[in-house]
Amino acid sequence: MYGTEQVISGTIIAGSELEPIEGYICVKNGIITEIGEERTYSSNIIAPCFVNAHTHLGDSVFKDPPLGKVSGFRTQIDLDSLVKPPDGLKHRILKDTPYKTLIECIRKSLFDMIETGTCAFADFREGGVLGVEALNKALEGLELHSMIFGRPAEPELPLKIVLAEVRRVLLHSSGIGMSGTNDLDFELLEEIVACTRDRKKLFAIHAGEKDRSDIEKALSLKPDFLIHLTNATKKDLESVADAKIPVVVCLRSNLITGAGMPPIADMLEAGIRVAAGTDNVMLNSVNMFAEMEFMSKVYSIEDRQVFKICTLNGSFVMGPNSTGSIEKGNKANLMILNGSSNNLAGIKNPIGGITRRARPDDIISVLHA
Fold first, then answer.
1. Radius of gyration for the alpha carbons in the chain, expressed in angstroms and rounded
2. Using alpha carbons only, what angle is made at residue 300 by residues 245 and 17, rounded to the nearest 5 degrees?
3. What parts of the chain have a pLDDT lower than 50?
4. Nearest 10 degrees: CA dihedral of 196, 119, 116, 277?
5. φ, ψ for residue 185 (rounded to 5)?
6. Closest CA to 208 of 186, 244, 235
7. Could you give the count of Cα atoms lying within 13 Å of 176 in the half-sphere of its Cβ?
8. DSSP assigned state of 212
């Protein structure tokens, strides 16, 4: 539709405060050129697209891992045996997966993102240079804003060799994303961070997922953002807030791995910028509707805040070009939902309706700029 103007009518979830207004949006060359208020009689709901701020898309090759023993009503998973590098189950499977198969499986997850209303994502890619290259290859021709965080494939090798690979990874990625300070020699991590900063790239790291023992060390590395903080104390959160470091939470993943539930309300109260991601594809789909509904129904957080965490707040991690509020001059990364679908018909509050119950099949179309 570039070169022509589109006019979309309906209830618009507009501005940084996500206020519902009835009217129309004009889009030309991927930019919102006008927003008008008027009675439209359209059942469309026009909302910002999702930002999936943390994924592991390499896991797309393995979507049905053993979930361990059932204890009571809970499935107990040994998180280390599943995902800890270098010998966790996922890493062994990735090592044995043909390169072409890896690309094909990742690409299917990317299509799934597009179909479920996501316009931008940040991925932690295992596999060193080849891992980053596989995701870049899978992205070819797709309208998705991406940030790829690579990592060295064999960090146990001599330092000189590891840093040489890190430099190659950084040539083709947004930065480095590491699993946690307890998984690697800390001096090596410091060298990796220094190398990343020297090339003016981003550094991110998991912290506080299994327990809080790695949070202080992670903070000392001054990352651009943190993943999880499931087991953070209020004192930990104060330190994160003081350092002005955003946090990405992954609720469904944390629940199924037994890591616990991240203290989102405390994060928000501390002034931390919070975004959301779906984490490991082997455990959860990339469907952000599912993540959002889960957050809405498990936490005592206002619906508007939940929707913001899953959409606009991703720009704190991804940058302003990833998505944005529906305002004149912004890029048109929009999903148009059918407000009269069998599922959504009868909702009175569009924010609450989308947040608590909307599904991918309610989407009429998605615009990616």
1. 20
2. 60
3. 1, 73
4. 30
5. -60, 130
6. 235
7. 32
8. S
> What pLDDT score was predicted for residue 1?
46
Q: Where are the alpha helices (DSSP H) in the chain?
A: 79-83, 89-96, 99-115, 128-138, 159-171, 186-198, 215-220, 234-242, 251-257, 264-270, 288-298, 303-310, 314-318, 350-357
Distance CA 18, CA 25 (A): 15
Q: Quickly count: other Cβ atoms within 10 Å of residue 5's Cβ.
A: 11
pLDDT of residue 300: 84
How far is Cα of residue 142 from the mean position of the Cα atoms in its chain?
17
Strand partners, 13: 20
Instruction: Render 26-60 in DSSP notation, one character per residue.
Output: EEETTEEEEEEE------EEEEEPEEEEEEEGGGG
CA 369, chain centre distance (Å): 18
Strands 19-28 and 44-48: unpaired
CA distance linking residue 208 with residue 206, whole number of Å: 7
Note whether 143 and 368 are within 8 A (CB): yes
Q: Please report the domains of the chain, with CATH numbers, ordered by start residue.
A: 5-49+324-367 (2.30.40.10), 50-318 (3.20.20.140)
